[in-house]
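Z., the sequence and structure:
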Amino acid sequence: MLKNRLIPVLLLQNGVLVRSETFSIHQVIGNPVHEVERFNQWNVDELIYLDISRNDNYDLRRDDTKVKGLDNPLDILEEVSKTCFMPLTWGGRITTVEDMRERFLRGADKITINSSAVRTPELITSGAKIFGSQAIVVSMDVLRKDDGSREVFIDGGKMATGLKPCLWAKEAERYGAGEILIQSIDRDGTGYGYDLDLIREVSNSVTIPVIACSGVGDYKHYAQGIKAGASAVAAANIWHFKELSDRNGKRAMAKDGIRVRSV
């Protein structure tokens, strides 16, 4: 039986790492290259970097977050990949197969696409045929509305698509996606835990692995995500604000009966 993965998600905005809350509030927290060195010392299974920048200005700003000589995300990816000793997924600003190829050449093991997958789902198929389905992750940003219904959004959670998460997940799988990454807009950065109903519904609608993300504030939330149907659990903020987040997270999962790699 495959073991469940624990994955940190690092958000890159204008060249620096940020923490996010409901996709609308972003706080600078660190250096994108130095952070991977820390994770190499920790017992995590993969890393996901998501470039959430909304413009072309990669200003590294504060002295303690600067990386000399790096002024675009691909340079950052290349530098990160030099010292990343675990599978590395990279997302953001990928709209063509050539964008995918460039990221693989710069050191990514997988790429994740979001808005471009919705706009041009054939891109999933093209990428899967060339690089293999296992290298193509489709990320979906989902908002729970006041009436309890859920809808997929794109463009950093700004534009509604009219798509239902389960139906879009099925379509993404049909087009050739190898994994689905679920991000909950309303849970993002809250610490309230995953949207378990969303995870359960999407996981039950596809046969490919689902990665749960958004809302983790306590290590017990990881096991809840797995029990809801996710194959892997991911989080962002908790990795930056709690010590020993790798081993404490895996210990909590193992204690709750979840199969994980060594703790």
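The chain has ten helices and twelve strands. Residues 114 and 139 are 5 Å apart (CA to CA).

Let me know what you think.
H.
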